[in-house]
Amino acid sequence: VEPVVVIHGGAWAIPEKICDASRNGVKLAARKAYEIVKSGGSALDAVEAAVILLENEPVFDAGKGSCLNAAGEIEMDASIMDGTSLKAGAIAAVTNINNPISLARLVMEKTDHCLLVGEGANMFAKECNVPSVDPSTLITEDCLEEWKTFQKYTSAVDSLFNNQINSLTIGHD
Amino acid sequence: TVGAVVMDCNGRIAAATSTGGITGKRVGRVGDSPLIGSGTFAIDEIGGVSCTGHGESIIKICLAKHVICLMENGMNAQNAVEQSLQFMNSRVKGAGGAICISASGEAAFHFTTERMAWAIAKANVLSWGLDPNEHNTEMM
After folding, report:
1. ipTM of the predicted structure?
2. What are phi and psi of A121, to 5 degrees?
3. How many CB atoms are closer than 10 A to CB B71?
4. How far is it, in rounded angstroms, from Cα A77 to Cα A134?
5. Out of B19, B29, B130, whose CB is closest to A76?
6. Residues in CB range of A118: below 8 A, 6 or more apart
7. Nearest residue on chain B to A95, judged by CA atoms?
8. Are strands B47-53 and B96-102 parallel, antiparallel or unpaired?
9. Which three-class secondary structure state does DSSP give residue B127?
C-alpha cells in the first residue's frame, strides 16, 4: 500500500510572524513520518515521531510552547490511537514532561486504560522513568507575553464590570 | 495543538494529537485533544482523524468520530471533513480544523479558522500550506 502522511500544526489566527516557522515545522514533521513508513516503519511510530518533532518546536502550542493557564502554569494533553487494534492512550493536565504524546503511547501500551489525568498521569510518567523537566523550560517568551496580556485584559474587564470572569475561552486550543 | 495521521505500507492507520491548551484557561480545563472520538480517532477499515480548534465545540459534536461516521456512510474524506466542520460551525458556532486519511489512502484537510498549518506526504510529493487556498508542492 502507498503510505500517506497528513500533519497539522493547529487551526487558529496564526500570527504573521510565525507563519513561515509553522509551515517549516509541519513540512519537517511530514518528511520525518514519511521516511519512517517508507522504510517499513509502523503508522504508530510515524505519528509519534511527527508529533514529538512538533512538540519540540516552540512555535506550536504543544510541549515546548504550551500556553499558560489562569494560574500561569502549563497543562498539556495528548492522545494516540491505533486503527488496527483500536487501542488508544491519552493523558491530560500533565505539567512537567517534554513529550506528552510519548506518555500517551505508554498509557496505551502499558496499561488497560485509555486516559490518565493530572497527578496520576505525572505519577505514571515517573513510574515509566519518563524524565521530568522543570516546567519553566517549556515556557517561551511569546507564551509568557500572551499570558501577561491576558491577565491585564481580564483584570481590566473584571474591574470594569466588577464580576468574576468564569472562563474566558478565547477561541481555540 | 498539533496532530498527525499516517497510513503505513501495510495499510494500517494511526492518529495522534497533542496540545498545550489555551492561554488563561481555567486550571483543570481539558479540551478535545486527549478525548478519543473528539480530538483523535483511527480505525483501519475506515480512516484516521486528528482535530484542532475550539475544544468545547469539537467535544460537543465528537468531531473526529463525526468525520469517520460520514466516511462509513460512503462520503469521501475531503467532503467528510468539510461537512463535519460546517456542521460544527452551524450547530455549536465553533471553528476548527481537521486532517484525515481514508482507508483507500485519500488525504484530506479543512479548516474554518483564519489559518491552519498543514502538510501532506504521499507518492514522494510533499504538499503544504497555511493560508486559505494556499497549496505548495515539492518532490521529496
Report:
1. 0.98
2. -65, -40
3. 26
4. 17
5. B19
6. A92, A93, A94, B28
7. B20
8. antiparallel
9. strand
